[in-house]
Amino acid sequence: MEFRHLGRSGLLVSEIAYGNWITHGSQVEEEAALACVRAALDCGITTFDTADVYAGTRAEEVLGRALRSSVRTELEIFTKVFWRTGKGPNGSGLSRKHILESIDGSLRRLGTDYVDLYQAHRFDHHTPLDETMEAFADVVRQGKALYIGVSEWTAEQIRAAAPLARDLRIRLVSNQPQYSILWRVIEAEVVPASQELGLGQIVWSPLAQGVLTGKYRAGEQPPAGSRATDDKSGAGFIARWLGDDVLTTVARLKPLADEAGLTMAQLAVAWVLQNPNVSAAIIGASRPEQVRDNVKASGVRLDDGLLKAIDEIVDPIVTRDPSLTSSPAKRP
Predict the structure, then answer these.
(1) 329 inside domain
(2) What is the pLDDT of residues 163-207, one digit of tens each?
């Protein structure tokens, strides 16, 4: 496993991180989840990402139990706040009340005194940004988080938050966007702003919900037990990638992966890691062997010819529109 700095900070993270968005507490039983975390640890992953809203808060609990026997100082644990976790009018968003109450809930579920990174899961259009950043500053000063990050924020929103963080003397070090061979909406605006301001990307869905593994084939039903067949595990998210045009195009990547000595999944993870602004790629898993396969992308360098060949194949189906980075207009 290789390690990278998280943005322009001194924090090193494993360039492949383990996330449990739609697996722990929902798609797979706890014993399987624990086996996947053990595999991640055995493979050298030290960075683990979750959120309070995943599986209705159960994902944090499962991850906390899975990491309980590990040495806390040898891990980087990330979580997030924004989506609804409470029933009352302040049960979501980035108000001071919700942030300060949510960090305590996350720490309790994770079984730790602090998280290494606390992230704003989306931008809150209904809370003054200075209130949000002041609350995050208090979380840091209380020792409950070491660094602050955001997720799926636009370049404009990142540019507005960065000077506030600087004035408050806290480290805004990361953004967590969707990014893959097929989904490149951050490249035009978010990446340049982040490079300028010292944020690194912690990218999610580098496998495009599993489509880039090649297991879904045009004209065929999705494999039994796959994400596309399970409403609890994100079938709605993967639907956009299941058109025959996308699947036919993705299948054309396999000879390139074979020539490079990589699986399709390894090629996809390695591709996002070629971007110098990417600090880590988040993988998920329902089986330990998926973890062991994906981590082999660490340290892989794709040559310019291969990158060009990938672009030539997928260009007609790549999504690049920066406006697709957005947060809900109404508080959830």
Answers:
(1) no
(2) 999 999 999 999 999 999 999 999 999 999 999 999 999 999 999
User: Any idea which residue has 């995943």 for tokens?
Assistant: 54
Question: Which pLDDT belongs to residue 30?
Answer: 82
Residue 229 maps to which CATH number? 3.20.20.100
pLDDT at 86: 92
The number of angstroms, rounded, from the C-alpha of 116 to the middle of its chain's C-alpha atoms is 15
pLDDT score at 21: 85
Question: SS3 for 46-100, per residue?
Answer: CEEECCCCHHHHHHHHHHHHHCCCCCHHHCEEEEEECCCCCCCCCCCCCCHHHHH
Active-site residue, selected from the candidate residues 18, 54, 118, 179: 54
| Cβ neighbours of 224 (radius 10 Å) | 7
Please say whether the beta carbons of 297 and 16 come within 8 A.
Answer: yes
| pLDDT value for 217 | 83
Biggest alpha carbon distance in the chain?
Answer: 55
Sign of CA pseudo-dihedral 193, 320, 78, 289: negative
Q: pLDDT tens digits for 138-149?
A: 999 999 999 999
Q: Is residue 192 part of a domain?
A: yes
- The yes-or-no answer on residue 147 being catalytic is no
316: left (phi over 0), alpha (psi -120 to 50) or beta: alpha
Domain assignment of residue 112, given as a range: 3-324
Residue 156 lies in a domain: yes
CB 214 within 8 A of CB 234: no
pLDDT in tens, 281-298: 999 998 999 999 999 999
The DSSP element (H or E) to which 229 belongs, if any, is none
In the chain, how many domains are there? 1
272 occurs within a structural domain: yes
CA dist 63 and 50 (Å) reads 8
Choose the weakest-confidence range: 131-135, 238-242, 299-303.
238-242
- Rounded to whole angstroms, the Cα distance separating 161 from 163 reads 6
Which residue's structure tokens are 């299948």?
A: 251
* Other Cβ atoms closer than 10 A to 143: 9
